[in-house]
């Protein structure tokens, strides 16, 4: 049974001629139209009419001829494919099958197969939610996969630029209305439309509004093209979709990219406060602009004066300013680091780490000794990201004795990453900590010291004699992993069966950094361990690995585990996994008696962008008996809230006596008013 592919982008009004050309190309034949028709009818061939969306101006005629052909030859199996769902209404008969959208887990598996685990993570970081949503279409996923090797790290705007150019150029609709319009003009049309609809803070135009906007464009630019021809050109590319008498971009992120492209074409000198005063609809536009602009210093200088948080985010997304501009931004972050609000000081620390500039050291040093736990934690993490020791080493060593356990663990990994040898004795002491997270971090730090520095290994070996039995076991385990070479994964997974719980915890921690194909499943088996510290460490690892296959396992731990710390870790893990079921589990656990769990749920609701959870966050903000829960519920409202929440927050702030809660209210109100959304909540 021969299979004949009939590419419909070759169709120009005569289906018989298109079938003839396809039969000849498939079989290496030289048949006439009549002979090709007889071949199809008499051999039981399968005809695949591929690309219905590529008929262009011949759409009505092509659909009619294909329908008539299928009705006339019932003995021939025919398949019609189309990239876009809207064309399914063109036929009277039902759609036999369709390609279902890929789930995020399918996309991750596909990318991991092509790029490896690290490459897949890099791709998902640069693609972000917008392109990953579109990657649920298998055709677009393959296109994005092919582009990834050509994109510098974090330049998401450049990836969008390549993607949209390919989509516009591949419209290739032979004879289609609009195909003769030059590529540059078609891009200008998209830029013009996107900037107009972005200004209006909308995502859709009616047919009448579309005609008016295109008419305005023609008046100002290319009067020689009928507006309908421009519209056909836009929809033929697939980047603009028309349905139900209205039009919208394929995805909101495509609209945001073209708005960024329009700003770049206008020149950044002309960008005024409309785009830079923190209005939320421009945030993603500016991040995409950062990856394509030819004037990064000008962009960052303008943002530093109005929105330093967005200035840092733009640098993270590819903008590379000159030294003078960078110094100006660091000066502004210093001012934030001196704020009376701990939230602002923590934000300054996070931004310093994101910048990765050694010039941040003088700003971070005071924050290492800040009165607030989360500020100190943020400062330590920032120094690890910057990766230069400098004068910060003594202050970092002090944090190994921090009263906040998270800061202790982060400090252990930071001093090892920076190879601060003087810190090794203090790290060894942390191996005896009662906190499993601190012990695991310290063990990993020992591994890093032994692997990266002969001097470090000597110091660690010398301390074996004075260490107690539990410490010695962890040191020996760390040294064995450091020298494992290619067998490191095997040794770590074998350690999961150890009778020493502290070794199991440390192995789980290291598997997060060096996972194998079956690591998540082996770690998930430990969620049923009788030891709470092992359960907690395993759940945390599942979240960090984003192993969505075990969402139910983690969700049930949140609802049923007897240990509050395990339940709190489960809430955090669910938010990290971004699974479809994660929000439901968080909602089901809001009545938990432990403030640690409620605190983790509030943070998780913000991270998962659960806007429907705002009533619960209001309830916690107004009346939870635990101040920490109230603070983070308020912060979550600042992340998720709308103008409707401002009145509630204003009333709450007017009667609140607790200074920390009062400051959090002011911060949340400012975030909502400015549209500022902390990406790393």
UniProtKB/TrEMBL annotation:
Q: Which SMART domains match?
A: EZ_HEAT
What Pfam families does UniProt report for this protein, alphabetically?
Answer: HEAT_2 (PF13646)
Taxonomically, the superkingdom here is: Bacteria
Question: GO terms for molecular function, please?
Answer: oxidoreductase activity
List, alphabetically, the PANTHER family matched. Answer: DEOXYHYPUSINE HYDROXYLASE, PBS LYASE HEAT-LIKE PROTEIN
Name of protein? HEAT repeat domain-containing protein
């Amino acid at each position: 049974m021969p299979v004949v592919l009939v590419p419909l982008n070759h169709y120009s009004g005569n289906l018989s001629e298109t079938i003839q050309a396809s039969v000849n190309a498939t079989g290496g034949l030289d048949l006439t139209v009549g002979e090709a028709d007889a071949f199809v009818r008499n051999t039981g061939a399968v005809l695949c009419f591929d690309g219905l969306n590529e008929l262009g101006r011949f759409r009505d005629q092509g659909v009619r001829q294909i329908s008539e052909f299928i009705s006339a030859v019932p003995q021939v199996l025919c398949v019609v494919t189309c990239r876009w769902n809207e064309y399914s209404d063109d036929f009277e008969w039902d759609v036999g099958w369709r390609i279902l959208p890929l789930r995020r887990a399918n996309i991750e598996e596909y990318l991991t197969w092509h790029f490896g685990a690290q490459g897949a993570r890099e791709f998902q970081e640069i693609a972000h939610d917008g392109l990953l949503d579109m990657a649920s279409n298998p055709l677009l996923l393959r296109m994005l996969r092919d582009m990834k090797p050509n994109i510098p790290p974090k330049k998401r705007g450049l990836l969008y630029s390549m993607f949209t150019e390919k989509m516009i150029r591949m419209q290739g609709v032979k004879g289609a209305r609009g195909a003769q319009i030059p590529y540059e003009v078609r891009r200008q049309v998209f830029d013009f439309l996107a900037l107009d609809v972005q200004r209006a803070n909308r995502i859709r135009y009616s047919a009448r509004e579309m005609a008016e906007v295109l008419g305005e464009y023609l008046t100002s630019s290319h009067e020689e093209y009928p507006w309908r021809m421009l519209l056909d050109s836009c929809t033929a590319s697939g980047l603009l979709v028309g349905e139900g008498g209205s039009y919208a971009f394929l995805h909101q992120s495509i609209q945001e990219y073209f708005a960024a492209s329009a700003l770049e074409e206008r020149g950044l000198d002309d960008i005024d406060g409309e785009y830079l005063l923190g209005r939320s609809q421009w945030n993603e536009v500016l991040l995409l602009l950062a990856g394509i602009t030819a004037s990064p210093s000008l962009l960052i200088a303008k943002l530093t004066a109005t929105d330093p948080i967005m200035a840092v985010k733009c640098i993270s997304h590819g903008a590379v300013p000159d030294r003078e501009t960078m110094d100006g931004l660091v000066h502004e972050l210093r001012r934030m680091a001196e704020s009376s609000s701990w939230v602002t000081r923590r934000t300054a620390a996070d931004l310093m780490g994101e910048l990765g500039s050694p010039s941040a050291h003088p700003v971070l040093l005071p924050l290492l000794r800040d009165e607030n736990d989360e500020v100190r934690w943020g400062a330590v993490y920032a120094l690890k990201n910057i990766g230069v020791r400098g004068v910060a080493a003594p202050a970092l060593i002090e944090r190994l004795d921090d009263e906040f356990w998270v800061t202790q663990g982060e400090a252990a990994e930071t001093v090892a990453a920076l190879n601060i040898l003087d810190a090794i004795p203090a790290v060894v002491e942390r191996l005896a900590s009662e906190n499993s997270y601190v012990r695991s971090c310290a063990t990993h730090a020992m591994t890093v010291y032994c692997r990266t520095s002969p001097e470090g290994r000597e110091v660690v070996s010398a301390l074996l004699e004075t260490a107690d039995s539990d410490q010695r076991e962890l040191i020996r385990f760390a040294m064995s992993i450091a020298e494992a070479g290619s067998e490191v994964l095997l040794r770590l997974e074998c350690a999961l069966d150890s009778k020493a719980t502290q070794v199991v915890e440390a192995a789980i921690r290291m598997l997060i950094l060096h996972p194998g194909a079956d690591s998540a499943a082996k770690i998930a088996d430990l969620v049923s361990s009788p030891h709470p510290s092992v359960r907690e460490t395993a759940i945390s690892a599942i979240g960090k690995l984003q192993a969505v296959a075990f969402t139910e396992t983690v969700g049930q731990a949140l609802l049923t585990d007897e240990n509050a710390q395990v339940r709190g870790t489960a809430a955090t893990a669910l938010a990290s996994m971004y699974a479809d079921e994660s929000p439901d589990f968080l909602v089901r656990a809001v009545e938990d008696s432990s403030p640690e769990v409620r605190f983790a749920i509030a943070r998780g609701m913000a991270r998962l962008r659960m806007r429907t959870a705002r009533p619960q966050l209001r309830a916690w903000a107004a009346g939870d008996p635990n101040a920490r829960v109230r603070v983070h519920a308020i912060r979550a409202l600042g992340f998720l809230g709308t103008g409707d929440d401002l009145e509630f927050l204003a009333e709450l702030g007017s009667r609140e006596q607790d200074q920390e809660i009062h400051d959090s209210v002011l911060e949340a109100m400012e975030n909502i008013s400015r549209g500022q959304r902390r990406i790393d909540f």
